[in-house]
Every structure is written in C-alpha cells, then in structure tokens.
C-alpha cells in the first residue's frame, strides 16, 4: 500500500510516463490531502464564525431584544401586537436578534399552549409580492395540515372510546358518536381543499385569498417577519405591505402582526403614507457597535470557534478595530476573524497573529472591490478601464477630458454607444462614491475647474476583473491609442 502513504517525493514522479504506468502516478498523487491535513488545525468549530450560525447569546442587544419582547408578549395574551419596524445598518444584529426573539416566542407559546406562530421570510431571496404570498400561503397550508391531522387523531381516539362508553363525551363539545363522526368527515374534506400555491402562474388575488383562508383557518396570532424588507419594496413596490397591513380588519379567527427589518434607514420615504403609519407603529433602531462591543462579541464566539491558546492577544482587538471603522459591522468583524484563522491555517502556523488579521483585511477589501467592479454596468466599466489605462502609462491626477478621450476610443473599438462627456463625469462621480476612484475638484485658476482622478483600488486585479467582462474583453490592444495621446 505504498501509494497511499503521505510522503510523496516529487522526484519519484515520472511526469512523462506512458499511458500504461499512469496507474502508479495516480496512486502516488493520493498524498494530496495528507499534506494539508498535517499539523494541528487552528479551529475547533469554524462554523460558529459563519453568518448562518445563530448565537444563543447576543451581548449589547439586550435593550433591543427587550423592546421587541415587550411588544410581542401581547401575542401570548391572544391579542394583536403592534407592527414593528426595525432599522439598522448591516451587521448590527437585526436578523440574529429577530430570530432569537421568534424562537423564544414560539417556545413560550407552546409552553402555555397559546396559539402563536412566527413566520420568517428573507425578502432578499423572496422578492416579489407573488413569492412572498405564495411562500406564506404554503407554510400555513402545511401548518393547517399538521393541525388537522393531530385533531383527527384525537377525534378518532375519542370516537373509539365513546363507542364503548358514551360517558367519554361528557366533557366535550359533542353529544353523540355521530357528531364526532361528522366532525371527522368535515376535517377530512378541509384537508383535501387546501391547494398549495404553485411557484408561478396564479393571479395575485387568488394567491392572496389562498393565503388569507389558510391563516384564518383557526384561531391564532401570527407574527410575520419580513427581513430585508427594503429590498422587497425596492424591487416590487409596497403592494405586499399594503395588503398585509390591512388584513386584520377582514380576518375572523386569526390576527396578523408584521415585523419589518430594514438595512436602509430612509426606506419608509418610498412607502404609501397609510402603509408607513401602519407598519411603523413601533420602531426599534439598532445602532452600530463600537470597538469595545465588537470585542465582546468576538470573544464569545472565539471561545467556541478556536482551539485554546491559538489566538495571540492583539488579534481580537484588531479585528474589532477594523470592523468598527467599517460602520460597526459585526459580520465584518467575524469574517475578519475567520479569514485570519484560515490564513494562519494555510500558512501552517500554530497561532493566529496580528499580521494574519491585516492580510485578512486586505483580502476581504479586495474581494469587495472585485465584486463591485464585476457588477458595474458596461459603460462604467469602460470609464474605469480608461482610467486604468492612463494610470498604467504613468499618468496621475487624471482629468475628466483625458478619461473621456480614451473612453471614446474604447467605445469605438468595441462598437459601444458613446455617452456625452457630461454623463461620463456622472459615472466618474459614481465610481468615486463606490470607493473605486478618488476624484477631487481642483481649481485651475482662470481655466476653470476640473476633476483630478486617481485609482483607489489595486490596478492589476481590477484590470483583470474588467477584462473578464465579455464586452470589455473585446478590446484587443489599447496601448497604441493610449500611447498616441502622449505623442501629439
Ligand atoms: N450582539 C451580537 N452578539 C453575537 N453575535 C452577533 C451580535 N450581533 C451580530 N452578531 C453576529 O454578526 C453577524 C451579523 O449579524 P446579523 O444579525 O445578520 O446582522 P444584520 O441582520 O443587522 O445585518 C451574524 O453572524 C450574527 O450572529
Ligand atoms: Mg440581516
């Protein structure tokens, strides 16, 4: 079994080997993962640092969590809680806190046997009125199905007992075995009537009424959590919220309360005033974390995530400081810590050091830039590419006119529409806001004012991303016409 041993000496590998001894080479390369598995890994449980993990403790969010609970406790008394709107930038713990509260609410409702249910929807994924209503309808159809089946089991049992001893019916709503039978038949037909909503194809009002009937099937208080609600409104308007927020006046058995969660503090500006006042009955703000709070959060998670004594002392404070600069984002802090750990693991060191955190910061920043650049519209990519070509030729403090000239040539080269210099100036301002270029307005005395543009992102990586775009990649060789600019 030599071929399976971890030690592969590259010199032993005959890379030019013929087809008939390729079996041997194949076996020899089985050491591939052994190398990587070697050495003590740094992580005890890396999953704990991923966004999908829901922590059981949320330090520095006691106030917000208590506020939510104070409003929602109404549901446990069988009444309708006020609608709640939650605001805060990304990574301030909104989703984690909302999920925590909803789990507690459901557990308590089961303990006291009060019918209260929470439905969570992520509107970044489920982003049209049709999909939101269909998803809700189908969830309640499922729940009703389980509710009916439990009830059928109880009733079947009661019927059997009552058939032997009619006194079994004394404390029930039924006066005869036949009445129990009737109820069973009626429930069985209800079970068949619920028609799940298909993913597409029904008129919206049919989806809505299916959802409505499913929710109203029996007495209960329902809290609908719409996370990333700003994405839903941005994409599909506020019809969904309008419909949901006026349901209560028509429901007979159940009550609905809405909890909207938004990353965008100004999102209610886009809402119909009626929706706005109904949805924002209660508002809870999640402020950014400061560096000290981020340290606490990281400390808690690090204890479970890492093997003991693998983090050097300055790692957590540095992750916290970087993330605090980035608007107090706990997600960024956790990403940094995880990435730093991964870099240490890849470097086969035994501890995570400050240098790993700095590298992680660079890596995450670069990933962000790559993603932003990759998703720019073609015209912005061409403007950015023009800027890069100028920088590559040693031009700094580039002005708008220079960018425009090269941009025009690029457009001609790939037969794209040429925008006006004014529009190009706007696109440059957008690139500035995204942090891709830095454009400052400078006065040129009697020649008026111009912009001085410099690239704020790594040149080579950004160029590579631009050229991977199928349109921009059509530019064969830009050097001649960039060079021509210097010649005249
Ligand atoms: N107070 C906290 N304690 C522990 N972890 C937190 C806390 N706040 C946020 N997190 C973690 O940070 C990440 C981002 O939080 P999340 O709730 O998704 O933010 P938001 O929904 O506001 O964008 C998640 O991994 C979450 O578990
Ligand atoms: Mg969230």
UniProtKB/TrEMBL annotation:
* GO biological process terms held by the UniProt record: cell division; DNA replication
Tell me which CDD domains the record gives. Cdc6_C
Q: Which GO terms describe its molecular function?
A: ATP binding
Ranges of compositional bias, category Acidic residues: 8-26
- Cdc6 C-terminal domain ranges (all copies): 384-466
Keyword Nucleotide-binding on entry: yes
- Which residues bind ATP per the record? 92-96, 289, 301
Give a single Pfam family match. Cdc6_lid
Which keywords describe this protein according to UniProt?
ATP-binding, Cell cycle, Cell division, DNA replication, Nucleotide-binding
Q: Where are the annotated segments for Disordered?
A: 1-27
Span of domain AAA+ ATPase: 80-290
Family from the record = Belongs to the CDC6/cdc18 family.
Q: What does this protein do?
A: Involved in regulation of DNA replication.
Q: Which PANTHER family does the record cross-reference, listed alphabetically?
A: CELL DIVISION CONTROL PROTEIN 6-RELATED (PTHR10763), ORC1-TYPE DNA REPLICATION PROTEIN (PTHR10763:SF22)
What protein is this chain from?
ORC1-type DNA replication protein
């Amino acid at each position: 079994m030599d071929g399976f041993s971890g030690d592969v000496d590259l010199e032993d590998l005959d890379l030019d080997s013929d087809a008939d001894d390729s079996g041997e080479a194949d076996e020899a390369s089985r050491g591939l993962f052994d190398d990587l598995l070697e050495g003590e890994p740094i992580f005890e449980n890396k999953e704990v640092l991923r966004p999908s993990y829901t922590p059981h403790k949320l330090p520095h969010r006691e106030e917000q969590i208590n506020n939510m609970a104070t409003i929602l406790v109404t549901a446990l008394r069988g009444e309708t809680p006020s609608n709640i709107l939650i605001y805060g930038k990304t990574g301030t713990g909104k989703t984690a806190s909302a999920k925590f509260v909803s789990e507690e609410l459901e557990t308590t409702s089961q303990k006291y046997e009060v019918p209260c249910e929470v439905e969570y929807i992520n509107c970044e994924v489920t982003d049209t009125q049709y999909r939101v209503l269909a998803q809700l309808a189908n969830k309640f159809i499922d729940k009703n199905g389980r509710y009916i089946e439990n009830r059928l089991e109880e009733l079947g049992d009661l019927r059997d007992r009552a058939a032997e001893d009619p006194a079994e019916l004394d404390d029930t709503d039924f006066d005869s075995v036949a009445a129990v039978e009737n109820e069973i038949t009626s429930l069985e037909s209800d079970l068949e009537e619920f028609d799940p909503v298909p993913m597409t194809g029904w008129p919206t009002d049919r989806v809505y009424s299916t959802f409505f009937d499913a929710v109203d099937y029996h007495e209960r208080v329902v809290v609908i959590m719409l996370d990333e609600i700003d994405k839903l409104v941005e994409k599909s308007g506020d019809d969904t919220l309008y419909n949901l927020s006026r349901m209560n006046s028509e429901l007979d058995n159940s009550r609905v309360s809405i909890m909207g969660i938004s990353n965008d503090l100004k999102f209610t500006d886009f809402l119909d005033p009626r929706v706005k006042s109904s949805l924002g009955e209660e508002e809870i703000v999640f402020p950014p974390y400061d560096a000290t709070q981020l340290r606490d959060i990281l400390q808690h998670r690090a204890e479970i995530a890492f093997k003991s004594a693998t983090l050097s002392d300055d790692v957590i404070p540095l992750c916290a400081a970087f993330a605090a600069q980035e608007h107090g984002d706990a997600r960024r802090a956790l990403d940094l810590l995880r990435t730093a750990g991964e870099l240490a693991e890849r470097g086969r060191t035994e501890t995570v050091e400050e240098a790993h955190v700095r590298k992680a910061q660079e890596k995450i920043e670069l990933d962000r830039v790559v993603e932003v650049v990759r998703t720019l519209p073609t015209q912005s990519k061409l403007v950015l590419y023009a800027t890069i070509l100028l920088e590559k030729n040693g031009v700094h403090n580039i002005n708008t006119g220079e960018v425009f000239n090269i941009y025009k040539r690029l457009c001609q080269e790939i037969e794209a529409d040429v925008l006006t210099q004014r529009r190009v100036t706007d696109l440059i301002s957008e690139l500035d806001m995204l942090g891709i270029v830095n454009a400052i307005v400078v006065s040129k005395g009697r020649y008026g004012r111009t912009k001085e543009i410099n690239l704020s992102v790594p040149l080579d990586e950004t160029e590579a991303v631009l050229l991977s775009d199928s349109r921009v990649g059509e530019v064969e060789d830009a050097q001649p016409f960039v060079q021509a600019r210097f010649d005249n």
